[in-house]
User: Fold this.
Amino acid sequence: MSKTRTNVVFGIGNPNAKILFIGEGPGQNEDLTGIPFVGRGGKLLDKMLEEINLSREKNIYIANMVKCRPPNNRDPLPEEIDCCIDYLRCQFKIIRPKIIVCVGRIAAMRIIKNDFRVTREHGVWFTKKNVHIMGTFHPAALLRNPNNLPQAQDDFKKLKEKIFEVAPEIYE
Ligand code: URA
Assistant:
């Protein structure tokens, strides 16, 4: 994928954030700008973050499973995720988040468990090495199927509750 990319899309946000969002991989707009989640899906994500008083500038960091755009926006292959996973591990080590939100199936299957099903397990908290991890709907999927939007908003409310529990200083 490095051969067909325009820009590497590494991540954006506050490196001191307590919350790490992990998406799938860059789409066309992200490839052109080098910034994660800048298309229509990104706007929706920003709106949902705003609803719980979070912003990518202030209190979260956003990364992706793969740093280069998969051709034609196909799902990244497991071996492509393997190629990029050490970058994500480094991002995790630097940020040391207390909370991780897996945005969509691809991130949740790799970070939470390989049989993760978004429709069944969105909004459920998992704990690994003292980090609280949740999977939720991908904004692109919400744009395709807005019926799931209320459930996704509920997931973000659960995120807000978890922040009050483990990192209340974020809202101070
Ligand atoms: N979808 C993702 O998963 N990540 C992006 O950065 C953009 C779209």
User: Anything to note?
Assistant: Helices lie at 28-33, 40-51, 78-95, 105-111, 118-121, 139-144, 149-166.
